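Still learning. Show one?

>
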Amino acid sequence: HSKSDSNQLVNGSWGSNASVTDSNGASLGTFNVPFAGGLGFENDHNHDKRDGGALILNFKPNDSFTSELDAYYAKLKISTKKAALKGGTNGTITNGVVSGTTVQSGTFTMQPGDFTAYSENIFDDDTIKSVGWKNSVKFADAWSASLDLSHNSAERVERDIEAYGEVTTADTLSFTNGGATVPSFTFGNPLNYTDPTKIMIQNKDGWSGATYQTGPLAGQQVPQAGYDKGPTVTDKLDAFRLDFAHQLGHESAFTDLQFGLNYTKRSKNRLTDEGVLIGPNGVITDRIPYPSNAYVEPNVGGTGLNILTFDPQVSLWPGVTLLRKYNDDILSKTWTVDEKVTTGYVKFTVDTRWVNVPVHGNVGVQVVNTDQSSGGYRADVGASVTLTNPAIGLSSDGIKYTDFLPSVNLTGDLGNGKLLRFAAGIQLARPNLTDMRNSLAASENRTITPYVEIGSSGNPRLKPFKADTIDLSFEKYFQTKAYFSAAIFYKRLQSYITPLTNVAYDFTAYNTAIGLVTTSPPVGSGPIGIYTTTVNGSGGNVRGIELAGSLPLNMLADWLEGFGLTGSYSSTLSSVALPNLIGLNPSQRVPLNGGTMSLPGLSHINEKLVFYYERAGFSAFVADNYRSTYVGSVTNSTVGGYPTLVGIAPQQWISAQVGYEVPSGRLKGLGFRFEGNNLNKPVYKEYKFDGSLNTAVQTGATYAFKVHYKFQ
């Protein structure tokens, strides 16, 4: 069981020039005030609660048979509760007091609806279950076998629910200490935002982006008193593995034979529920009372202002209902993927001599058969919001294919602690499941002339990354004290995965399936339009070098006993240049002339250096980690959203630790450790498509003191 809580004060105000008058109405001039454009202050309460357990039962009635049953369960509840006060000011300050160029104090006149009290709850409820049963048996003198059965499941309920509280009366907002990062604010009527008879949850004009299409409210704007979005994701994996091993003796180069079969069945369902929250009558004049468990949040953002708030839950609260909405983005977030992968393999253990050099390792082959399919919505829909699901239901598509994956791993012992390693083979890495979704959205864009059809989809027929690989390394060991290694690697890509936009795609087949009728030339382009999907590209390579070493410093001088260094360095280059996909979700168009980017996840340079001390129960180290610029996939930047590629600036982390463990006596096994992470307080920076800064987050240093005891 673990539980942690933390709080944050957030200032998201924005500034503009404000005209300032004094208490007599005389103009004092125009000044730049950091919150004259609007206020955005909030209190964030972060909660992380985790419960887990594991059980292992081992049965061994004799030396020939072992049976093991293991089970694991975990429940995670992670949430961020936001109580925020947001709204635009009118840029006019009365009763102003100015010192130099700073407006020290003054008053804004606020109209009804200028300020909104946000109550927002962002949370994950996760449940993880796993059970496995493995049986191993030895029979005859040279044969053994094992059977491994397992079932795993994970469910995540992820939600972002928000509600908007407003008052219907005008008010004033005064501030003092205007030169501070967070001034002190007071409402003319402080009870306005804390009294449940005065503040209620109500519509934000124009936020829903939708109108009623049918019924008595047809043509009227859909109100939005709140918003509810997020997926429920269920992931299940069943596996069966049967292995055999046979000792061949030492009469040939092959000493052992292993072969077997592995079967996995995986299903992942992602169901997105998204829509606006409306009142009992579904009209913009509805005012919804706060629930009975509402409470007053004090000192929002450190401003001194208090607001009424509550914690929205999946079950919502009395007086409010969810009105689901749909467009291409929302529909594409619901999908299912099923994978059945059957792998057969044969592997020989090598132990021989070549030109009087001892050589050991293995050689083998895997045959992998994949049967994959995906379900998703396919509909005549674009970016505009509709209140009716335009898709009849989930449609399914998929593909079957077989991969032949040979590999060889050999190590030559050159003597005197020197080893030469060689590996070659064909490797694959499976696609992102989002890219495999069988969703399609297409519509005719009539905002331009001629009209043009625009669509996007996933690709349920997508195949994996696949590469021919070669690795060569040299290692030198100095007894059991120190080592040095140098390696080079090369991967020739047979296939990689990338989004692609075709500006002259023929939608005829798709249009028939979704019932879309397009406009013929010259008014429209007919079924020829712009189509974005994920495809398999080919060609290119990834190559690099890696250096690593470890050196106890007493090899240089006896008085350095206990001190040492370890370090590593790698340089990776790629000839594959993908289109610039930074910031794009899978349904957005790939820019045709928008530059290029490197393969995601690859930094050109990675470095690590550790200086340590270990002796007489004492241990300490200082570590420095560095990686250069890279393109990374950032998950869940918005709740229910897609993983998004962003440019990430070079990063460096410095950490340190010092500890002591009692080596003998009655307290043997008792240890103490003090550790610090992010000691250099690094700034994590993400960059947009055009290279401009998207966000910068400074991570403070963290410290921990730990006590542990090892039972002897």
